[in-house]
Specification:
It is a single chain. The chain is globular and about 65 Å long. The chain is an alpha+beta fold. The longest helix has 19 residues. The protein binds adenosine-5'-diphosphate and magnesium ion.
Length: 317
């Protein structure tokens, strides 16, 4: 059993590639970093709590990977490139096997996405993982939820609903075919932050958000921040064939944990969207609707469903 100082030294002192900008990393009272000239720092923080954000029997490597990935997704949605992160780890006990696997999952994600762990905090309590992340964006090129305008096209990356379907499978609520089961389990445990979309967002997007709490609730944040409405089309939603066949689009509309990006782009950028899709088959953008002056609805054949009252995931309801 290691104490907190031994835990930090053994498991967390070398995660991610050392950055040029790190003046002082782990080991002092605080870290010191330089910010590159003409860039701005974009910071965010996300916490995962056992039983709320992941089932308690999730593998430690998956928990660590997901904790970093969900934070990276927030940076991507702002149009920022990752730089460094801090880890606050609350543990019920100091279990070497658990810590080894957790550190491995964290290292895998940090190496894959190219950022360094430069500090944190370690204490005892109910299992919770909190990560503070920072990235850079060229001055004033960040993207917010607040810039959507009437006539803009609403786009999403990837497939929607896979993570929620993975969770439903895990709970025994659905029985998925083998290959889809793997895809959905991966979407749930190893979400892929859409960092590759950052150049497109900086160049083309009027607004963006990452879909962590379900499309309907998260797109609503864009509408609130931009003071506009939207109409999306059910038939346009990018979903897997199983959702389509079983007609259960609620996984895609309301299911959380997708970590895809929803963004808006003026219609004059259509050619850029097409070019993006030709050049980035793994990060395709699908047009799902249009920004309107007011209202929030889903067209489904010749029916119009009002989305105004539908909510995304909320912690305190
Ligand atoms: P203090 O008591 O002064 O806050 P700590 O013992 O908490 O110091 O931290 C010592 C050093 O270890 C600091 O550089 C801190 O950022 C780092 N650290 C603590 N916990 C973690 C962790 N879980 N991951 C990474 N670095 C950590
Ligand atoms: Mg401390």
């Amino acid at each position: 059993m290691a104490n907190e100082f031994a835990i930090i030294e053994q498991y967390f002192s070398t995660i991610g590639k050392p950055m040029e900008d790190t003046v002082l990393g782990i080991g002092d009272d605080a870290a010191v970093v330089d910010i590159p000239q003409d860039q701005q720092l974009v910071v965010s923080m996300d916490t995962l709590i056992s039983g709320t954000h992941f089932p308690p029997d999730t593998s430690p490597a998956d928990i660590a990977y997901k904790a970093l990935a969900v934070n990276l997704s927030d940076l991507a949605a702002m149009g920022a490139s990752p730089a460094w992160f801090l880890l606050s780890l609350t543990l019920e006990e100091s279990d070497d096997r658990w810590l080894t696997q957790f550190a491995n999952g964290l290292k895998q994600a940090a190496d894959l996405f190219g950022l360094q762990l430069i500090g944190g905090d370690t204490c005892k309590g109910k299992l919770a993982i909190s990560i503070q992340i920072a990235g850079y964006v060229p001055r004033d090129r960040f993207v917010t939820r607040g810039g959507a305008a009437v006539g803009d096209i609403i786009l999403v990356t990837g497939e929607l609903g896979n993570a929620a379907l993975g969770l439903a499978q895990r709970k025994g609520e659905v029985e998925l075919p083998e290959t889809l089961r793997e895809r959905c389990t991966l979407a749930l445990n190893r979400p892929q932050p859409r960092l590759e979309l950052v150049p497109f967002l900086r160049e083309c997007a009027s607004s963006a958000i990452d879909i962590s709490d379900g499309l309907v609730g998260d797109l609503r944040h864009i509408l609130d921040a931009s003071a506009c409405g939207a109409r999306i089309a059910r038939g346009a939603l990018p979903v897997n064939a199983w959702i389509e066949q079983h007609d259960c689009y609620d996984y895609a509309l309301e299911g959380g944990d997708d970590y895809q990006i929803c963004c808006t782009v003026t219609a004059s950028r259509l050619a850029e969207i097409e070019r993006w899709n030709r050049e980035h088959p793994d990060c395709r953008l699908t047009a799902i609707g249009e920004i309107t002056g007011s209202g929030y609805s889903l067209s489904d054949g010749d029916q119009l469903v009002d989305l105004a009252q539908r909510q995304g995931y909320r912690h305190f309801d």
